[in-house]
Each structure stands twice: as structure tokens, then as C-alpha cells.
Amino acid sequence: MKTKIYKSLVLAMTCCFAGCTDLEEKPVGLLAPESLFNSAQDVETAIFGAYGWLASERLYGRQFVSALMLRGDMVDIGDRGTPAERQQVNDFNMDDNNGMVRSFWPYWYQVISAANAGISGTESLELEEEVRNRLVAEARFVRAFSYYHLVRVFGDIPYIDYFINDPEAVKDISKTSAADVYQGILADLEFAKQWLPDNQPNDVRSRPTKGTAASYLASVHLTLGDYPKAYEEAKWVIDNKERFGYALEADYQNLFRAEMANSLEEHVFALDFLGQQNGGGGANDDIMPPMTGIRGADQLGWSVLVPSMAVYNTWDDRDYRKEVSFQPEALINGVLEPYTEYANTQRPHIAKYRRYPGNSNSDGRYSDHNYAAMRYAEVLLIAAEAAAEVNNGPTPEAVGYVNSIRERARNAAGVQTAFPEDVQQAGLDKAGFIDLVLNERRLELSFEYKRWYDIKRRQLGTQVFTGGESLEPHPNFDPARDYLMPLPRIELDVNPNLGPQNPGY
Known about the structure:
Blueprint: H1 4-14, H2 33-36, H3 40-54, H4 63-71, E1 76-77, H5 84-91, H6 99-123, H7 129-154, H8 178-195, H9 210-224, H10 227-239, H11 241-244, E2 267-272, H12 288-292, E3 305-306, H13 309-313, H14 320-325, E4 326-327, E5 329-332, E6 335-338, E7 349-350, E8 370-375, H15 376-390, H16 396-409, E9 411-412, E10 415-416, H17 430-444, H18 451-457, H19 461-466, H20 489-494
Antiparallel strand pairs: 1-3, 2-8, 4-7, 5-6, 9-10
Helix pairs in contact: 1-6, 3-6, 3-7, 4-5, 6-7, 7-8, 8-9, 9-10, 9-15, 10-15, 15-16, 15-17
């Protein structure tokens, strides 16, 4: 009996649709790359198919990123009438049959399969070395990006870095240790950094460059606690920012205006959705605006992903980023009403995605957003954190990186404010500065799917979910179980070699 995991992988090979880079491309069957890939353009089409899986409802359009938001301490369930699978993820009582996991697990492997097909297809062609390596580098970046998410969510996972032309070869596949998965990720990113271009055609930010690969190398090294390498990679990106066209956007709000998303210098890597367009398998179906929007408001939403009151109340009102990030009042039947009058969940809602979705449906679905998976601001914060670890405390350089982000935050739509104030190095020790950087990440990158990964890599779960200052208390949080999600039960049922299940499930 064939396993579901390799059925998922074969599905990607047989129906790899083109992504948002060109939704008009015809699908490419991928069961026999040596006969189907006749040119570099054919390989690019396969890689675009991988981007199509990423910009789908199962991954960056709703399921996967919703799970990341709910797992952290910045987003809670609003409407408790939402399906139980979401409540389980949020409340740390999920089981191994969770519907969200069953939804996004196979899609990540479809992305990986499309990337592997692109690599195999390239190797079957006689191309100039520069062209061949550039194509392989882009596919390897996509593969690394996918595994980087999977390994942080699940730990040990099946690691497949080759094209599967014989489904029988993977029906009994077993897991690879997280440590070995990370080595594969780093190898892919190093190759990508070497061979990707400095800039993509038309400066498209939804395709990776050398700067993208280096930024992710910095992030992976930070996650692994290799702070010298994290600092080295982040510093290299910062020193070469003009080369890659990176800069902080002057107005923080512009980062979340869908109509401006294609020209933002702050985007290091983005997932591109095209307004009012969708394809099979949930392709290009962005549902995050309605998931975070206000049920019953004139600007329609569903009140599913809603921060707790503590998240809102503890954020200083003088911070312009708070104004951009929240919607504490809304038009209801043409009247501007405070959140206490919201029909379903009487709390300020997330505004980053619902306020300016661009060309979209009436509830914000099928938006025109380009979701930043990596921003230049995050590169600065990686450099600041890693530098403090390397030097056993804050340095003027590290403090300067944080202050550059705070300086941008003081530009409130063109009006200069005095908050947040610059960080002063005097009196700050290493622990205090690291805490400051983590909190700056929490605010600067709020609701951008980063917080759970910070909680996990710094082992903050007990503190942030059971401590006295918890923004979203979950006294049942168990560090022996809850830093990982369960492998889907159906995968283990059809292939016991994927066991053992993650602890506690």
C-alpha cells in the first residue's frame, strides 16, 4: 500500500501549476523531467510552480501562517465558533489528527518536490555553467526555505533532496534528524548565496537573490545558536545593502499597503499574491485579511485571529507601529464605533492585512498583498542580537541597528514624533539588551509569523505562557511537548517508519 506522503510528493510532480510570477503559464507535468524539460524557461516554470504552492491557502494564504500566529503569544482565538482545529493549536491541546497540520504538511512537500524537479530538470539539460547554477540555486533556496519551516515546526522529518521518479522508492521513507536537516538547509543556502544574482529581473522581491540567501543563512545560524556566523552573514547583507537595493521603508504603514508592495526596498523575500485571481488547490487564495478582520464591520472580516487585550494594552500608545498594527475602531453601518461595540469579539483587531488589501473581494479575500517572509528590518535585528552574543554585551554597532529601526518608527506618516526613544548603551548588560532586542522583534514584526519561532529558539514558552506577565496565559503549556507539533497520524498509520511520534502526542 502506497503511503500518503509520497502520494503528496507525486501530486506535486504531476500537477505543478505556475505561481504568481506568471499565472498564465501552462502547467508542467513533472513525472519525467528528462523528457519534459527542454530549456531553461521550462525549469523556471517548474520553480514558479513551487512559488504557486507557497502562495496558496494551505501555506501563506491561511493554514500554515495561521498556525504560527496562534502558537505564539501575540494572537489568540477571537470567534470561538471557529473550527476546533484552530482552537487546539492556540490552546496547546492539539492531537495528532489536527486538521491544520494535515492540511499544510503535504503542501510543504509539494513545494519541495517542485524544487527537486527543477534541479533534476536543469541537470538533464546542456546549459552554460552560469545559467545552470543560477537555476539550481533558485530551486535550492526554495527547498531550504521549505525545510526551514518544517524542521522548526516538527523537528525530525523526512528529508528528500532528490527527484522521485519511482514512487516505490519512498513508500518506506523514514525521518532524518533535525541536525541533519539543518545541514541540508545550510548547504542549499550557501549554494544559493554563491550562484543567485544580486537582483532579479525588474527587481522582483518574490524571487531570491544573493542577499536573500545570506539573510536566511543569518536567520538559520541565529536559530542554531551559532552567533558568530549569524552576525557575519547579517553584517555582510548590511554592508552590501546598496548592492541589493535594501533599505528601511520610510513609513511603516507602507509595508502593509498591498498597492505598494511590488516596489518596497525593505522586502528581502516576499510571497506574492495577485488580486482577484485564484487557481486550483487553493492557489493564490489569500484569506488572511478576513481571518484578521472584524466580523460585522463594513469592511468585512471573520474575527478569528485576534490579539488578547493584554497585547494591546501593554503596547505604548505613542508607538506609531501600534496604530498601523491594530484596528481599535471601525465603521459599522456607516458609524465609527470603538472595539467595545464589535459584534463578535470586543477586542482591537489586527489591521496590517485587512486595512489595505488592494484589489480583493469585499471581505479582503484574494488580496493583492506581497507578504514579507524576510524584511531588512529583521536583518538589522538579527545582527544586533548576534553581535551582543558574540561580544558578551551590547556594542555601539548593535545598539545602532536597533536605533535605526526606532528612528523609522518615529516617522508617523510624515510627522516626526519622540517615541520610541533611542536605546542608550550605558547600563545595559547582555541579558538586558537581548531581552530588549527580542521585545523589539515582537513589536516591529508583530503578526508577521515570527513570534513563535522566537519563543521556541529562546525557550521562552514557560515564561510567556505561564508567567505572571503573560500576554496570553496557557497554564497547560508543556515544554516537553509543545515546542513541536505532532506528525499527522495518517502519515504514521500508513508508514510506521516515520515514527516515533513527537513526544506527548
